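User: Thanks for the earlier help. One more: DNA-binding transcriptional regulator, AcrR family. Can you show the sequence and predicted structure together?

Assistant: Of course, both are below.
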Amino acid sequence: MERHDMIKELMEAADQKMTPKQANIIRAAIEIFAEKGYAATSTSEIANRAGVAEGTIFRHYKTKKELLISIVTPMITRFAAPFFAEKFVNNVFVDENLADMDTLLRELIKERYEFVKQNVPLLKIILQEMAFHPEIQRGYREAFVTNVLPRFKKAVELFKEKGQIGDFPTETVMRLTISTVAGFMIARFIIMPDFDWDDEQEIEYTLRFIRNGLIDG
């Protein structure tokens, strides 16, 4: 799968042309926010790593908070780490994946695995900061409601009609699926990144866990 270029994606999402210095600022901020968290990061640290004067940051961003939001908002609205990207929905919720639940779940897990693998620093930032910033929470909700909810509900209802999902409310099926896949990604890439994982086997274990839980409703 093609490797994501975070700076390029952020520029496209923001629909603006970044100068080389601005791109360096964004890259440095992503790295340090992911390493230390937003609150523990100073703009002087970002400037030092970016190789620019601290005043250069404030020519582009009025505050450190504005810099954070400029990084996170495009991530959410375009990709919404780790589930709610329009591109993700278009890749996963296609007719050929709706033939059976296993096919859809496997595609969902593998697609999100590849995406998170290439964007761990941004995932760390979102997980660290979501609880503290209403703007991030709002973007997350809006992306889910707009891009994912209708397609996910349609797929769940279809599999329920086929007898592939037990007698669970549709919203419960979505919650259980999302929380299980998100838990796998967080454990794999953030909590235990250095563990000797067999990723293909872990994907199959995750698929089996979701499938067996949902079929016995």
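User: Great, one quick takeaway?

Assistant: Residues 134-161 form the longest helix (28 residues).
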